[in-house]
Structures are given as structure tokens and as C-alpha cells.
Design a protein that fits this description.
71% helix, Serine Threonine Protein Phosphatase 5, Tetratricopeptide repeat, 281 residues, globular, mainly alpha, 2 domains
């Protein structure tokens, strides 16, 4: 699934996951309804009962091989699901969290809890719970040593959970730690995602544009070496924005220059339905 994602074939990565789930008797559409996603989200609160979110830190470790394998698959498909369908992304996230509530915590739980921090806020409007679930995933890594998905957990917490309640700069150091951790273990997909998020963080915080440009150029070089099309496209646009803000393009507000052709780039994005999300961004 990671390979298909990097090759700009997120739909095939999703198909692998759905095929696996069908073998377990779970028949999902690649485009579920919002109601299906919400039911799975509400089931989290039903299983939580009277417990505080923070108490989930003490759940026993998951030991059932089938549950561990399934959570691994759900964890791996989160990236491509996010690229293809918002309801599927929410459904996968919530099902993965429910699996942890039923069978205990494992390495994948860290990542799915922080991903729920994305979903609870942006999809279901519960921003306080979003931050608390994000912090739960982070603390599982820090306190219980579940570090297999450390890089992914750090990145999502810093970029998509912390900003709900803290200044955007608060996640900066954690983003840099996430990149180092991903690069160290060869998780090129998430190392490259992290480059995108770091650029976003620097721009949102109003850092000096010369420093942001240097970071974006470094990220673009990294994405090209990883041959990750989605990241190449997104960082290219970030760099175009930085260059026009710096007055480096002939016309302010246009990214056109000797390095970038807006019309050609727009045609590139429009030529493949798999690029619809980045076209929107």
C-alpha cells in the first residue's frame, strides 16, 4: 500500500485494503456514506463509556494476531484513503480506533488515535476531543514505548491535532523530530509528507520567506529523490507561492517564471482523477 501511494496509485492501495477486509467478512465501498462514517465514530463513544480519553493509555497490549494484522492494514491505508475519499478516511480511522478499544493497544494504535484527532475536529466538529485523542497517541509513544509508527504519530499530532488548541509554532520541533525518525527507518512516504507539513507550518507562522524557501527547496529535492508525485506537486506549488511573495516572479500573484508554467501544471493536475485532491489544495 505504501508503494502504490508513492506511485500515485492511491486507488489501488485502497483496493488492496478492501480486498483484505472482504476476506474477514467486512464489505466496504471505496466511497462510503457520511452516515456510515458517523456511525463508526459514535461507536467509539459508546465503547468509551464513562472512561476519560486519557484512561485509554492504560489499556492492555493487543495480542490477538488477527487483530494486529487488521490494524496494520488499516494503519497503512490511512494515507491513500485520505487522498481518495473523506468518508472512507473517517471510516477507516474510526474502525481502527474501535479495534484498539476492543482488543487493546499496539504500535498502530498510536497513529490511529492521532489520526482520529484529525477526523474528530475536521469531520465531526469535536475539536477538544480531537486534541485529546491526538495527545493520547503521542503519549502512547512517549510513555509506553510503542515506537513502530513514531514518525507518523509525531507528524500528525504536530500538524493536525496540536493546532486545534495551540499556536502553530508549538508543533515545529515535533515535525523536525518526525522527519528524522521517518528518514532513519526509511519511511520515505511520511518523511516526504513531513516536508510538506513543515513548509505549511513555516508559512502559517510567518517565518522569514528566505528561510521558508530554503526549507521548501530542500523538501522538493527530497521528494524528487523519493519519486513521490503527490509531494512533488504540492511542494512545487508551495515554492511558487514563496517565490511570488518574495517578488521573484515577473508578475505578483502569478507563479509563472522560467521554473514554472501555471497552465501546464493545471493540465497535469486535471489529467488524472487521482490528482483531484492536490488540484483542490
Amino acid at each position: 500500500m505504501d508503494l502504490y501511494t508513492t506511485l500515485d496509485q492511491s486507488d489501488r492501495a485502497v483496493a488492496v485494503c478492501l480486498d483484505y477486509l472482504r476476506r474477514l467478512g467486512v464489505d466496504w465501498s471505496p466511497h462510503p456514506t457520511e452516515a456510515e462514517a458517523r456511525r463508526e465514530y459514535e461507536r467509539i463513544w459508546s465503547q468509551l463509556g464513562g472512561r476519560a480519553i486519557e484512561e485509554l493509555l492504560e489499556l492492555p497490549l493487543m495480542s490477538d494476531p488477527a487483530s494486529l494484522a487488521t490494524l496494520d492494514v488499516l494503519t497503512k491505508v490511512l494515507g491513500p484513503a485520505n487522498h481518495t475519499d473523506a468518508n472512507l478516511f473517517s471510516l477507516v480511522t474510526c474502525r481502527a480506533v474501535n479495534l484498539s478499544l476492543e482488543s487493546g493497544n499496539c504500535d498502530g494504535s498510536c497513529f490511529t488515535y492521532v489520526t482520529l484527532g484529525m477526523v474528530a475536529g475536521s469531520h465531526f466538529g469535536d475539536y477538544k476531543a480531537a486534541f485529546r485523542f491526538g495527545r493520547l497517541g503521542y503519549e502512547l509513544v512517549e510513555q509506553r514505548g510503542l515506537k513502530r509508527f513514531q514518525a507518523r504519530t509525531y507528524m500528525v499530532f504536530a500538524s493536525h491535532a496540536m493546532p486545534w488548541t495551540k499556536h502553530v509554532r508549538a508543533g515545529r520541533d515535533l515535525l523536525r523530530r518526525a522527519f528524522e525518525a521517518a528518514n532513519k527507518i526509511g519511511d520515505l512516504t511520511f518523511a516526504t509528507y513531513n516536508c510538506i507539513n513543515l513548509n505549511t507550518n513555516l508559512l502559517a507562522a510567518g517565518d522569514p520567506l528566505t528561510e521558508v524557501q530554503h526549507e521548501a527547496e530542500h523538501g522538493l529535492e527530497f521528494a524528487r529523490k523519493a519519486r513521490f508525485g503527490l509531494a512533488i506537486d504540492l511542494i512545487t506549488v508551495q515554492l511558487g507561492l514563496i517565490r511570488t511573495l518574495c517578488g521573484m516572479t515577473p508578475k505578483f500573484g502569478s507563479f509563472n517564471d522560467e521554473q514554472f508554467d501555471e497552465l501546464q501544471f493545471e493540465r497535469h493536475l486535471a489529467s488524472d482523477p487521482a490528482r483531484a485532491q492536490r488540484e483542490c489544495w
